[in-house]
Amino acid sequence: MALLPVAEALQRVLADARPLPLERIPLADARRRVLAEDLRALRTQPPADVSAMDGYAIRAEDVTSAPTDLKVIGEVAAGRPFPNELRPGQAVRIFTGGELPPGADTIVVQERTRRDGDIVIITAVPEKGRHIRRAGLDFQKNELLLSRGRILSGRDLGLAAAMNHPMLPVHRKPRVALLATGDELVMPGQHPGPGQIVYSNGYSVAVLARQEGADVSDLGIVRDNLADTVTAIRNAKLRRADVLVTMGGASVGDYDLVQDALTAEGMELSFWKIAMRPGRPLMHGRLGPIHVLGLPGNPVSAYVCAVLFLLPLLRVLSGRSDHSIPTEHALLGSDLPENDERADYLRARLSRSSRGALVATPFPLQDSSMTRVLAEADCLVLREPHAPRASAGSPCVIMKLPL
């Protein structure tokens, strides 16, 4: 099978991905979830004309000159309306948020008044209609305020609460199952034996998935045994995973059994080699309703492939329309040689030039096993296949790495 271009590989990964079904969840749990339906206001806000200041509700026609004396006949606080209509020569003490009494059309702020018992002295002629928040100033009942596909922020939740929605319709979170394979792997804290290494891929990939709102379950490390690998895959089915992410074992060596195990379980293979570095042995397929991504075993390759392919897939499943990983322009901080037939994703540090321009300097060593370089990197420098030599200071395209 020929090496597949990165763009075509991503297109295949997303081709049959659809937003997950709707569920209704409490307002308090909905931050960063994606709305599955348009949300309309269930009420008008504010529901009536209210005072925007502490002061006195009056009839503007009663105060055409200053000072003017008015009789105070009552008080209005938020949630405690005044039941009677204001008559000529009368005023009502009112506080911010209080509903405007019938007959009143203006608020005089308390700084422009003096009080003498039940008489208020207006010391300046007010502007008619001043300091009143009109009914519906914020929004009207049935008005569309939050649209389907929106990623809900804390501010959105405040708006939804004001709209009187206790539950929100959102897309279900993607369920991701992680499966690592390899006799050489031991868990952190264990002592590696001869030829063994400490397992690290799953931790960084799990964080990426959780940052996208996915529920992640770790199926652990499976030894290089076909029966054990099949059992682990069946466990992912039992957990009703939407995405199965395997790490390692996706190539064609004698001990690379993941593809055989998945095929035995009915996976339809889409591809397993792509024209990128790091990450050439990336596998993709469908196991019934489960999207399968077989990440390479090298830690950097696994992470970079997860950023490029897993994140967009999870965003589509979550209901997001902005599934693409954004890129930016920068200047190269060092010379680069011409590229071969594979797209390069070079780990790089970011800095600013003396003129404030963004500068990306690739690390001298780009081996796909170097977790230290990956941890120190701020971004990936993207280079197309067969890109010519590039000098320091020339333009480049970067992709910032998630924190």
What key phrases describe this protein's structure?
Molybdopterin biosynthesis moea protein, domain 2, Molybdopterin biosynthesis moeA protein, domain 3, alpha/beta, single chain, Molybdenum Cofactor Biosythetic Enzyme, Chain A
- Note the overall shape: elongated
Question: Which radius of gyration do the C-alpha atoms yield?
Answer: 32 Å
The stretches of 5 or more residues where confidence is low (pLDDT under 50) are: none
Structurally, how many domains make up the residues? Answer: 4
Measured as a percent range, the helix fraction is 10-25%
CATH classification class of the largest domain: Alpha Beta
- Give the averaged pLDDT, no decimals: 94
CATH fold title of the largest domain? Molybdenum Cofactor Biosythetic Enzyme, Chain A
Distance between the termini: 35 Å
Strand content: 25-35%
Q: CATH superfamily membership of the largest domain, which one?
A: MoaB/Mog-like domain
**How does the major sheet shape up?**
6 strands, mixed
Tally of DSSP helical segments: 7
Biggest sheet strand order reads: 7-4-6-5-9-8
* Oligomerization status of the protein chains: single chain
DSSP strand count: 26
How would you characterize the overall build of this protein?
- The protein starts with 5 loop residues before the first helix and ends with a strand.
- The protein is built from seven helices and 26 strands.
- 19% of the residues lie in helices and 30% in strands.
- The mean pLDDT is 94.
- It has helices spanning 6-15, 154-162, 201-211, 226-238, 258-264, 299-317, 371-376; strands at residues 22-26, 39-40, 50-51, 55-58, 68-76, 90-94, 106-109, 113-116, 119-122, 132-133, 144-146, 167-171, 175-181, 185-186, 197-198, 215-222, 243-247, 268-271, 276-277, 283-287, 290-295, 328-332, 343-352, 358-362, 379-383, 395-400.
- The protein is an alpha/beta fold.
